[in-house]
């Protein structure tokens, strides 16, 4: 336990609510502010991508005994189901037997987290707009409008968990020596929906992440608890085969008939969903420092927003909390030191998962349909099963271990160099699981 302080968390998303639980358990008075209505009272759909929980996220939940509660609302997913344009379906298992990520509806999970935080004694203040913060005194400024009258709210500490367009970070950006970058990808996304069958059974396998890879665009689907699927169409915003080009029902139906013919019977409301749901955009946001003295700290997307192609936005944010909590245990009331070590520890790992997530769009949208890539994955799995102490595939390092992201990326790059040499071996398609290939990898690893 630390000396109790009065702490504000701005943002009632997943990272903000879990952080609030940790701070409450450490003995603090915790208030959470959010400009939106209570998520438990609103319909949540139209611009969502289902979340996947992996080891880093589970670790943060296990440390406060909440993992079993969350497992009840998730669906284990142990493989990719790759839908090729010619109708073929390939499966690619993620890890070793028994290893799976969990598909979770963002809305269902967020509602559950708010319930759990309230049960701990965290106080929530919804529909309260925070416009600014005085960094030196941890004073929040709240009001109905940005130009209107504001009320001051005094705290000992403020955590900015208010997402990629954080108001807390906005104030920090106006200091000297504050680095900030924001990059929008040229790809947008739109939510679509696969309902369950009339008898409640699923139309496609619920234990797979379904991918329809088509080069520079793709469709993706993850199961919900009611056996429906939340699907996401990722496409360029402009140009050929883009959101800009699909302007009417005829073009949309023709496009899906050409590129996603096997979805005709499973997405019955394609036209309605496509033209009703908004286009959403993807940004990568980096900044540093993440803290101001012992008063203010950024966490989750407000410090490091990434694109969703590795499924690690939430997992990386939850890991921020794990590291922060370890430092709180280690240094007690020395918040200066806690904050400094927190940002120094997390920054390189946040940058690494941002880069890995960017790269994974290419893997999911193009490489999963590429014979050479599939062969590489097969060889890696075979060699890893034979020599688990010498080779863990990059995906497993990121998803099924707690190895720092920056280390996982460096080792993954080294392993990929080895695999490019192996794929150039004579007759590799036939001899991929031979002693010769095994020895070649062992030699390259030395």
Automatic annotation (TrEMBL):
Reactions accelerated catalytically: L-kynurenine + NADPH + O2 + H(+) = 3-hydroxy-L-kynurenine + NADP(+) + H2O
Cofactor: FAD
Lineage of the organism: Bacteria, Pseudomonadati, Bacteroidota, Flavobacteriia, Flavobacteriales
Pathway, per record: Cofactor biosynthesis; NAD(+) biosynthesis; quinolinate from L-kynurenine: step 1/3
Organism (species): Flavobacterium helocola
Record key words, sorted: FAD, Flavoprotein, Monooxygenase, NADP, Oxidoreductase, Pyridine nucleotide biosynthesis
Function noted in UniProt: Catalyzes the hydroxylation of L-kynurenine (L-Kyn) to form 3-hydroxy-L-kynurenine (L-3OHKyn). Required for synthesis of quinolinic acid.
HAMAP family hit by this protein: Kynurenine_monooxygenase (MF_01971)
Keyword Oxidoreductase attributed: yes
PANTHER family: KYNURENINE 3-MONOOXYGENASE
Protein name (Swiss-Prot/TrEMBL): Kynurenine 3-monooxygenase
Family: Belongs to the aromatic-ring hydroxylase family. KMO subfamily.
């Amino acid at each position: 336990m630390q000396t109790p302080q009065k702490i504000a968390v701005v943002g009632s998303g997943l990272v903000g609510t879990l952080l609030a639980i940790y701070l409450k358990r450490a003995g603090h008075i915790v208030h959470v502010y959010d400009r939106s209505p209570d998520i438990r009272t609103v319909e949540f759909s139209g611009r969502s991508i289902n979340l996947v929980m992996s080891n880093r996220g589970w670790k943060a939940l296990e440390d406060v005994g909440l993992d079993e509660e969350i497992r009840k609302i998730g669906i284990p997913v142990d493989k990719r189901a790759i839908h090729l344009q010619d109708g073929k379906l390939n499966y690619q298992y993620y890890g070793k037997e028994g290893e799976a990520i969990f598909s979770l509806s963002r809305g269902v999970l967020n509602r559950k987290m708010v319930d759990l935080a309230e049960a701990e004694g965290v106080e929530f203040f919804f529909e309260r707009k925070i416009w600014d913060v005085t960094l030196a005194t941890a004073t929040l400024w709240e009001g109905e409008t940005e130009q209107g009258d504001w009320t001051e709210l005094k705290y000992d500490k403020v955590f900015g968990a208010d997402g990629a367009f954080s108001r807390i970070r906005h104030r920090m950006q106006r200091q000297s020596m504050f680095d900030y970058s924001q990059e929008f990808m040229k790809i947008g996304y739109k939510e679509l929906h696969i309902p369950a069958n009339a008898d409640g059974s699923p139309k496609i396998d619920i234990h797979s992440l379904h991918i329809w890879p088509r080069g520079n665009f793709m469709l993706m689907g993850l199961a919900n608890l009611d056996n429906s699927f939340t699907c996401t169409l990722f496409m360029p915003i402009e140009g050929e085969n883009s959101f800009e080009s699909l302007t009417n029902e005829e073009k949309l139906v023709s496009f899906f008939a050409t590129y996603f013919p096997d979805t005709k019977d499973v997405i019955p409301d394609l036209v309605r969903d496509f033209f009703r749901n908004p286009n959403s955009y993807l940004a990568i946001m980096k900044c540093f420092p993440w803290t101001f003295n012992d008063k203010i700290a950024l966490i989750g997307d407000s410090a490091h927003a990434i694109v969703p192609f590795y499924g690690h936005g939430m997992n990386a944010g939850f890991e921020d909390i794990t590291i922060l909590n370890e430092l709180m245990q280690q240094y007690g009331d020395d918040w200066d030191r806690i904050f400094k070590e927190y940002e120094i520890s997390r920054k390189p790992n946040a940058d690494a998962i941002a880069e890995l997530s960017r790269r994974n769009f290419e893997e999911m949208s193009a490489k999963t349909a590429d014979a050479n890539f599939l062969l590489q994955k097969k060889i890696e799995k075979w060699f890893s099963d034979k020599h688990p102490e010498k080779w863990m595939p990059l995906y497993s390092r990121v998803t099924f271990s707690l190895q720092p992201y920056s280390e996982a990326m460096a080792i993954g790059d080294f392993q990929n160099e080895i695999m490019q040499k192996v794929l150039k071996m004579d007759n590799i398609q036939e001899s991929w699981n031979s002693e010769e290939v095994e020895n070649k990898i062992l030699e390259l690893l030395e």
